[in-house]
Each structure stands twice: as C-alpha cells, then as structure tokens.
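Listing S7. Sequence submitted for prediction.
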Amino acid sequence: QVLSSRVRFGIRGAPGSSRSGSASAGLSGARSSSSSSRSLVVRSSSSGSSSSPAPSTMVSSSAGSQTQSWIDSFNDSYLTKHKSFEDNFWATKMNLANNSSEALANTKNELDEFLNAPATLEEARALMADPATSDEQKKILKCVERTLMCYIIEDEGAMNIKKQITTLEASLAAARNVMKLGYTAADGTFTPGSSVVLRNLMRTSEEESVRKAAYEGLRSIGPFVLENGFLDIIKQRNALAKQLGFVDYYDMKVTQAEGFDKKTLFGMLEDLEKQTKPIALDARKRLANEKGESALEPWNMGYAMAGDLTKKQDEYFPFATAVKTWGQSFSRMGIRYEKSQMNLDLLDRDGKYSNGFCHWTVPAFTKGDGTWVPAVTNFTSLALPSQPGSGQTALATLMHEGGHAAHFANVNQGSPLFSQERAPTSVAYAETQSMTLDSLCDDAAWLARYAKNQSGERMPWSLVQEAIDQKRPYASFMVRAMLAVPFFEKALYELPEDQLTAEKVLELADEVENDIQGGLSARPLLSVPHILSDEASAYYHGYVLAEMAVHQNREYFMKKFPDQGIVDNPEVGPMLTKGYWNPGNAEMFLDLVERFTGEPLSCKAWVKELSTPIDEVIASEKKDYDAAVAAPERDDPVELNMQMRLVHGDETIADSNDGGFDAACEKFKSWVNAKYSSKM
C-alpha cells in the first residue's frame, strides 16, 4: 500500500448493479483431490493480547460454544500462517540479514494453501446454519466464507499455476533488489541511485542533462523486469484467471477486492478520464506557454513546476523532526492506535524495496472472550535526508502510511480476517483512509501549524501562495498519472499471448502514457513497483476510487466544520474510527462512503475542485492560514496509544517504550543528524 503522488496544489510531490455489491466472488473450478480433504488445523497464536477497547464485538461464550471454539481455532491458525509470511515479506523487502526469497515463496504458498480449503469452507457454512450460532458468530463466519472464496482453487491445474506465479514473482523481486540502478552523466560516469534518488533528481537538479539521465535510469527498469521474468508472470496470471472462469487477471483481482467486475470499474474510470481530459490538456498548454515547450519533456515537468519551490520550502520540512510532526498532527485529531506496535523503517538504502508500504504482521481483532489483540505494523518509506524535499516527502509518507496503520489498528471485529489488507478487503476502502489524512499536507492551515524550520519559524504565507500559484493549475496531471496505471494494466492483460513480447509491452506503456497523460510520463509505467507483485498488481485503480472518496470526505468535513475545519480537530479521529475503521471489511466500501458523507461515491467533488478558479482557492486558503497563525501555540504531549520502534534495516534506532514517544523522536533526530549532517 503506497503513497500516491498527490498534488492538490503542490505540496505532495464502483458500483455494480447494487452499491453494496458482493465481495465474495472467488475462485472456482473442479475440486482437486489434494485440496478437498484439507480442513482446519489448530495452531497457537504468537500474538500478544490485552483488554478489548470496546466490547461491541465480544461473542457470548454461553451460546454457540462449539461454533466459537471453531472460530477461535481458525483465527489462531490463520494468524500463525499470516505472521510467518509477513515476517518473511518484511525481511525480504527491507533486505534484512539472512532474508530468503525461498522462505518468502514458501510461506506465501503455505498461507495460500491454508486459505484454499474447501473443507474449511464447508465447515464454516455448516456452522452458519446451526441454530445455536449467534448473529455475531454468523458475521464472523460470513467473513471466513468471503475470504476463502477469494482463495479457494479447486482446480488442481490452477493451483499449480498459482505456485508457479509465486516462485516467478519471488525470483523477479530478488533480481530487482540487486538491479544496478542509477544514471549516467554526460561524461560517461555512472552514479548508482535508487528510483527515489532518480525521481528526486528530476524534481530538483538544475542541470537538464542530469534530469534526463535520471529519467533514462528510471526507463531502464522496464526492459530489466521484462528480461527477468515479468512476461512469464503476465502469462501465468492470465492463465490462472482464465482457468478459473474470469475474463483475465485484472477482472479476477478487481472482482475479488471490490465486489464488482472490470467492466464496471472502467465504466467509472472512463467517466473520470473523460471529464478531466480537457482540464489536463489546457494545463499542458499553460505549462508550455509559461515555461517553454521543453517543460513538457518528462524529465523537465516536475522541475519546471516545482524545482525552485522545493528548495525554498525545504527548510520548513526538516526530516529529523518529521516523525514528531506526524505524531502531533494525528494526536490532536484524536487518532489512537489501540495499543499497536509500529515498526518504522523510514530511510532509503541499497537493496531496500523501492516503494513505501504498510503491512500488518498481526492484524487487530477481538477474541471471542473479549480479549483485544492489538495490531503489529511494519511501515516503510524511502527518505533521503541529504536531498532537497526529503523532509516534505517523509511527512506526506508518514501521514499516508500512518493513516493506513491507524485504520487497521482500529478494526474491531471478531477475526483477523476483517483487518488484513488483502482480498476481500477493498483496495479503495483502505486507500481512502490513508489518502484522506495525507491530503492535509496541502492545507494552508496544516502548513501554518506544522511546516516549521529547525528554529521553530513557520512557513510564510508567500511560500504557501507560491505553491498554489505554481502547482494548482497543474493538479490535473496527478489525476491523469493515477489513471494511466490501471489503464495500462487493463491493456496489458488484454494483450493476446502471441503479442506478449518485451517490445510490444514497452510500446504499449508508451502508448498509454501518451494517450492518458498527453506525453511520456515522468514516472514510466514499467517503473511503478505495484505492477510486479501479487499483492499490489491490478490494484492501482483503488487509489483513483479512493481519491474520489477523499474529496467527498473533505467536502463533508468542511460543511460539517465550516469554522474549525479538519486540521487539529479532535472530532475527526473518532468520526473516522466509528464511521470507517471499526467495521473493517465487514461492510462494503461504497456503502461506507455513502453512509459517512450522505452521498453515493462520485467524482463530482474532485472535478469541482480541479475546476475552481485559482483566485478563489488563494482567498480561501489565506483565510485558513491566518486563522491557524492566530490560534494559540500548543505544546501538549503526543498521545497515540501505541509502541513505536524506529529501525534502519537490522538496527533499532529508538523505541517509545524506552522513555515515551517524544524521547524516541529525539533519539531519532540525533541519529539522523549524526548520520547525515555531513551530507545535508
């Protein structure tokens, strides 16, 4: 789950026939002899537990005790498999000592095999029909049914394909981890650098030759992954989906996660694409008129819009204080993590996975006896303290991934299945929570309170307005960049297999970029890491649907709190907790949005904001900025109700259990300054 490049004004570099459509559509086929006898295997859970934060999901031990015993056993068994896989996922993606791509593939297969259990499904359905089973237990069993139906592969051939895919993906991930990535200067000197380094150079380097070299470095990822197994992965993913009766892999993934098919999804996306295309074309013309035609080159666009601005604003986003700033902002909105443990690995380094994400080693849930099992969260970003804009990016990432963590820490249901991030959990549902919170990083009120330099001086209004002037006219570029990914993956999985060559895929990526974005993209489609891995492939549409919901949420909050707004409003966290977070995947995304905002999900609020004249935006934001400046300064302690561990690979930098959140932030600040001061 990754930070979208949100650019509301520049700080951050669908229904089927029923809006509550079923998310239980799963994988079907002829049952194999190997899976038909598999049933529930009870193992002990290694997770900790504590008192439940609320008794609403407690199950009576006097009714349906046989059912509850089955549920408890299932939960323990699932949690063991889930944790084993996630531990290996983290070790591999963070490139920890002794990590093993083979162990990752094996534990992934073991988790998939546990969930691919027709006999367990039959048992769950039988218990649902038992008169002694309570309504709460039936809700849990229904979630078990929905989840298993996303994984059960009763066709032995399909199961073999699935195992092949897992092995291929692990092999590609290992190759990508050691890829020699970087850029070649005009004199032929090669400088190693991650994709994060290359993207930052494109935004900030004053030399066009360096920006172009960085872009070409990003472009090199496409041929590399195509030469290292991605073509075979595409073929096998489609083979699996078609074996199971789906149109193709994208259709399978969206049906599992969202509860409606690919055709329905792209009906929504095409509407947004149609409404924003003229806005984006006008924005490209404006950029060319203001900065020259060369500004439309993919390596120049980011710099043309914000290169100088990023440097001007940089001092107001010191990386070393980013963690504390995030904690203060969330704490003052009343967001709590319900005794979670969070492991934060925030800095870029060689061999580390080239995207931020938030995963859960232990998903939060309430046991049948009312015992609360808090979440254990692994959270990573790719900060580069020595580069301009790193603190700004770090804060946006903390707000985004911290939003994911807050959401899943507060899912209060009777099984970890409700709070795990894979199907049948809606991608759009998950991303709405994180993106609603990271959207605050653009707000003038938030900048007035939190964008401060090391001396405590706030960002002046002149810089906030400069950001609006420079970036707001081009906000539609972000919409189009987001749309390009699902449209590319749709086209990719619709390619006939005899056309699936490296040359054709590279050509297809360029075609989609030109069609959707109006030219080649500063982030080449084949460099987007989501498309490579199972858990994130055919996923990016979730960001688009979520962004629709973000604008709808913000519009609702601003109408409800016209004077106080969202920033530092202590009612926001409890409202999100009750309205969105507590249910987990027990309720459908589209239903949750409509119930929370009072309107069905649409792109109306988003398009309205893109169409608002810039002078109106400036006037509104100036009013909010002035109100924030006039408000009394606060020095209240951060209260998030969690344990925070700050790590760097295998090294533990600080732990909030040792002195509290503020003390951990100070240790982290000292560590960053000592390690990077000579480079900053």
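Caption to Listing S7: primary sequence and predicted structure tokens for the chain studied. Strands lie at 50-51, 182-184, 190-192, 340-347, 357-362, 365-366, 371-373, 376-383, 642-648, 651-655. The first helix runs from residue 33 to 36.
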